[in-house]
Amino acid sequence: MDRAELAGWLRLSLTPGIGDGAARRLLAAFGLPENVFAQTGEALRQVVSAAQADALHQPPLGLQAQLDQTWQWLQPGHDDGTARRLVTLGDAAYPASLLEMADPPLMLYVLGAADFDLTQLGRSIAVVGSRNPTPQGAANARAFARALGDAGLPVVSGLALGVDGAAHQGALDAAGDMPRLATVAVVGTGLDRVYPARHRDLAHRITLQGLIVSELPLGTPPLTQNFPKRNRLIAGLARGTLVVEAALASGSLITARLTSEQGKEVFAIPGSIHSPQSRGCHALIRQGAKLVESVNDILEELPSPHAGSAATPAAANGDAGAVSAAREEPLLDALGFDPVSLDALSARTGWSAAALQARLLELELDGQVARLPGGLFQRTAAA
Q1: Got the DSSP string for 82-147?
Q2: For the chain, what is the domain count?
Q3: Which of 312, 344, 371 is the last residue of a domain?
Q4: Mean pLDDT for the stretch of residues 146-165
Q5: Which residues touch 309 (CB under 8 Å, ≥6 apart)?
Q6: Which of 25, 93, 146, 169 could anchor a disulfide with 174, C-beta 3.0 to 4.6 Å?
Q7: Residue 186: phi, psi to the nearest 5?
């Protein structure tokens, strides 16, 4: 793409009142963006409203600055060694799955390894969930993502705190040093910034073994209204969506709904009836999502060449020995999988508080128990 062509795409995307739908009609009628801007007002009004036609004859504010910034961003030779691409509607590299959506984005900004592209996502799974998961929820997200990666499926998520971050990490764990597309992060900001900032290192890892994608112009801050738009792209890129944990009012449920509306599979991991973070998954299951207990429940719906050798979530984390040992640990049996207080554990086991504290600390250091706010404890390894 040369600078003049880039200017046309940016102008079309930034013109006030011209959304993706109007832009697609204009492109269908007149071809490339520069042809759109060469049309008379009368010709434009045959395709869009009079107000939209008038807006197209006025270059949007800030266009030149955006053009300069984007052109510079696209140039090769950056210190981080990543490839930067702008994939436009109709480009051969534009993912076919997005074309099946009602409102595919006009452009996608893509940052990541040069060997990977979005057309490699035909067998991917989205893994989404709470920004504040339970310890078990975070462990499940990482373990399932790793198991999906071991089965050869790239993982799509949103780079948010909590489940999203754990899912990206699990997918990267599975890839190891292998040169394959491990994960794709779809973000709700411009690609010249990382949000949340604490995921800067994770974002860097993703650019080495995956891709970061946005439909938003460079410089776009993390605005609330952009994240539901981001969710539709997560649903659109992936073959199906796994919801790990989610409250009833959750962006993850938006992603699940959009996945279902696109005719794709929705999967949900059940949890404790006492946990608010499980209620969204339970609602999805009642609405027809597939209840998932192991990664094979997903692979059955999405056949993979490596499905027969896929690990269970526990094995994906290298926890097979810990699981076997857990079956012989009476305190873990007493804990169950719901958060529980020290007093309740004492009543269940008959142990003193001092004995419980000592053993719980050992289990915590082994990664089998998590200490929660409010003096509660929760088991974190699935038996």
Answers
A1: -EEEEEETT-TTS-HHHHTSSS--SEEEEEE-TT--GGG-TT-EEEE--SS--HHHHHHHHHHHHH
A2: 3
A3: 312
A4: 96
A5: 150, 151
A6: 146
A7: -100, 120
Per-residue confidence band for 305, with pLDDT thresholds at 50, 70 and 90: very low
Question: Alpha-carbon distance 346 to 242, whole Å?
Answer: 36
E strand or H helix at 280, and its extent?
helix 276-286
Give the domain extent around 287. Answer: 118-312
At 254, the pLDDT band (50, 70, 90 cuts) reads very high
* Contact of 140 with 269, CB cutoff 8 Å: yes
Give the residue with greater pLDDT, 333 vs 306: 333
User: Across the chain, what does the average pLDDT equal?
Assistant: 88
pTM: predicted TM-score of the whole model, two decimal places: 0.82
Mark whether 181 and 150 lie in a shared domain. Answer: yes
Query: 262-272 burial by CB neighbour count: b if 16+ within 10 A, else e?
Result: bebbbbbbebb
Look at the block and give the residue holding tokens 């462990």.
139
Residues forming a β-bridge with 174: none
Contact 244, 127 (CB under 8 A): yes
d(CA 93, CA 109): 12
